[in-house]
Amino acid sequence: MPKSGSDAPGENLRYATEEILHYFSQHRRYWNDFYPSERWIFERLAGPDKQMGRVLDVGCATGGLGRALSERFAIREYVGVDINQQAIEAAQKDQTYPVASRRFIQGDILEVKDLVDKGFDAVFSLSCADWNLRTYDIIQTCWQYVKEGGHLVLTLRLTPEASLTDFAKSFQYIFAGDRLPDNIKGLEKAAYVVLNVWEVFRFLADLKPRAFQITAYGYWGKPSATAVTAFDRLAFTALSIRKGEKTGHEKDLGCELHLPLDLLW
Fold first, then answer.
1. Residue 55: beta bridge partners?
2. Which residue from 95, 156, 229, 244 could staple onto 170, CB 3.0 to 4.6 Å apart?
3. Is the dihedral of CA 264, 126, 164, 207 positive or negative?
4. pLDDT (tens digit, 0 to 9) for every residue of the chain, 265 residues total?
5. Which residues constitute the domain of residue 16?
6. What is the CATH number of the domain that holds 144?
7. Tally of structural domains, the chain
8. What φ, ψ does residue 263 adopt, rounded to 5°?
9. What is the rounded distance in angstroms from the CA atom of residue 69 to the CA atom of residue 87?
10. Phi, psi of 199 (to 5 degrees)
11. How many CB atoms lie within 10 A of CB 78?
12. How far is Cα 113 from Cα 97, in angstroms, rounded to an integer?
């Protein structure tokens, strides 16, 4: 079973490196910077009316997701949370940010106190929950901020094999370049969590309040060039999980999975 709560590591990693600011100042800022799996999920989420509503972005870095979504969809409000202080300060100072109603909060999503309203239409956790130690706790916490009928969107690295969550055995150097420098001493490391596909679906099916729709789109790819892990290929997957509404009766959990068959069997 997934580790959560008291069974999980005591704290998330608190990234202090300026490499995060350097990378996200140049990458993942515009629509075409995002992966095909992510864009596919975004389009499905917005629907024909192109509305995103109120958005919470967990692991927002410099707020690139809000900028990218605003190219195609209407955003009523955007709130970004990130543990890295330099990235949040850059986002707060951005005078060209395209979403009029926006707010940026520095901190760990498991600890922030400034998010009183939990009624977000869409909560995003892209390359965040599996880039830290308490992956399942982050997902469960993000889920609490989704309104009834709203969606949680997250990206995960999936495998048909056993999950690998040991930080000492699977990690990624945080570096803004395409290749690691010859001298890696002093580079900060991120967790590089890889999860068993069925473990993930069991966890999502057990979310409280209950989900009633899971949509996933993913494909095989190689681990990042800056990662150290036991895997030579991973299913990079974007998922959208819709929260059930209080209608007085339970709905069956439906799934729409666009995933490699050899990931599932």
1. 78, 122
2. 229
3. negative
4. 454 333 344 578 999 999 999 999 999 999 999 999 999 999 999 999 999 999 999 999 999 999 999 999 999 999 999 999 999 999 999 999 999 999 999 999 999 988 878 899 999 999 999 999 999 999 999 999 999 999 999 999 999 999 999 999 999 999 988 788 888 888 999 999 999 999 999 999 999 999 999 999 999 999 999 999 999 999 999 999 999 876 655 677 899 999 999 999 8
5. 5-264
6. 3.40.50.150
7. 1
8. -75, -35
9. 19
10. -60, -40
11. 26
12. 24
Dig out the tokens for 178 from the structure.
Answer: 């395409």
The dihedral built from the CA positions of residue 48, 49, 54 and 55, taken in this order, carries a sign that is positive
Direct distance between the N- and C-terminal alpha carbons of the chain, in angstroms, rounded to an integer = 20
Residue reference for tokens 């926006």 = 102
Residues in the chain: 265
Q: Which among 31, 18, 19, 176 has a CA at the least distance from the CA of 98?
A: 31
Number of H helices, E strands in the chain: 7, 12
Residue type, 219: Y
Q: Which helix (H) or strand (E) covers residue 142, if one does? A: helix 135-144
Amino acid at 15: Y
